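Please predict the structure of the following assembly.
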Amino acid sequence: MPELPEVETTVRGLRSVLEGAELTRVEPRRPDLRRAIPPDLRQRMTGARVTGLGRRAKYGMIDTDRGDTLVFHLGMSGRWRVDPEDIGTHDHLVIETADGRRLALNDPRRFGSLDLVETSALAGFAPFATLGPEPLDDVFDAAHLAEAFADRIAPVKALLLDQRVVAGLGNIYVCEALHIAGIAPTTAGGRIARKRLDPLVAAIKAVLASAIEAGGSTLRDYARPDGELGYFFKQWRVYGREGLDCPSCGKPVERCVDSGRSTFFCAKCQR
DNA sequence: CAGATCCCCTGGTCGC
DNA sequence: TGCGACCAGGGGATCT
């Protein structure tokens, strides 16, 4: 599923198509995804020019010269198709540009979202208002985690998935980062020694940077905007590798399910 | 507030 | 081959 690296890869791909482009057609093909699509989206975006693209946490952003920002979330199964020949049942938004390019936001499971927000009011956009720091920013450091973890009894895995603590991590990269850092996912946040937070922060930054470098992971239904599959999944140490050898010690990777979600870890390397 | 649980949604996979 | 059961899981809502 798209996490931060996949969204970053998607935005970079979209940028090559949309930066500076005039939008000649912006067509929602259903009224809602996870929540309602703004009914005036078509009217507000048609004829506008794209002035920039960006990313915040797992959200992609497309700015227009009308002072609006289209904010998209890819949910579980969302991806942008670039220059598709046909528009299918799961293509929920179609965009065409004056220079003849076409994009389709495809999301079979419809866990994604589309919002149109005044660019100047983005900070107050409800889904953004409570987000923690970007994990690749310098402000995300051991001191930040120390404060966020203090007195918390929730498992470190749950805390790292909490977008208020750090914004953009999902199940895959949390599992990977905890393995790299050698921390058991069930450890209560408040019981992690301060000296272990620097390696944890480094692990998070490293695994995200590697994934972006590789063009984003793929999990069955993820594809880069240009249709090529990302390939960071080949580098997964523990995620999806139950029963296979831990790359560090050779013991079988274990899996447990907590609140319906799989956690992959090595019981020897992570304590 | 912190934490736990449930729900949304559909394609792919698995067992019979 | 067909079919039902089950699973993936981010984020928001709703409880205790």
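The CA atoms of residues 28 and 195 of chain A lie 50 Å apart. Chain A has seven helices and ten strands.
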